[in-house]
Amino acid sequence: MFDAFRQFGPGQMIALVAVLGGVTIAVTAIVMAFWSRVRRSEIEASLKLEMVKQGKPIEEIERVLRASKGNGLGARQRLAIHAMNMGHSAEEIERLVRALDESSMGADALRG
């Protein structure tokens, strides 16, 4: 098997490794993007299920879901689920998510 690689010169080996490395990175990026979408859908589904189990009205469920959408989707939804489990209302959850957004923006501004 390694005899096949002996016919390549050093430059060709570098090119081969670069191409294989690029393909590996591209495939990994694609797989991780899909996995991220699946995980976000699972989190959103668990949030909806938990709210339905608690007997929350549809308007409140929609409100919490709207508040939990955005850039930090996983963190927002985890916060919403935790706050809901602690018995907070939709208004309180919205305020918590806004506070998370503001603290994230402040942290980004300090880093930038």
Description:
- The protein has 112 residues and is an all-alpha fold.
- Helix content is 84%, strand content 0%.
- The radius of gyration is 23 Å and the shape is elongated.
- The protein starts with a helix and ends with a helix.
Based on secondary structure, the structural category is mainly alpha
Largest sheet descriptor: none
Number of domains: 1
The helix tally amounts to 5
**What's the number of extended β-strand segments?**
0
What's the Cα radius of gyration? 23 Å
Characterize the overall form: elongated
Strand and helix order: HHHHH
Helix content: over 70%
| First-residue to last-residue Cα separation | 51 Å
Q: Which blocks of ≥5 consecutive residues have pLDDT under 50?
A: 106-112
What percentage of the residues does DSSP assign to strands (E)?
Answer: under 5%
Mean pLDDT: 79
Task: List descriptors.
mainly alpha, about 85% helix, about 0% strand
Draw up the topology in text.
Blueprint lengths: L2 H4 L3 H44 L4 H11 L4 H13 L4 H22 L1
Can you summarize this structure?
The protein contains five helices and no strands. The chain is mainly α and 112 residues long.
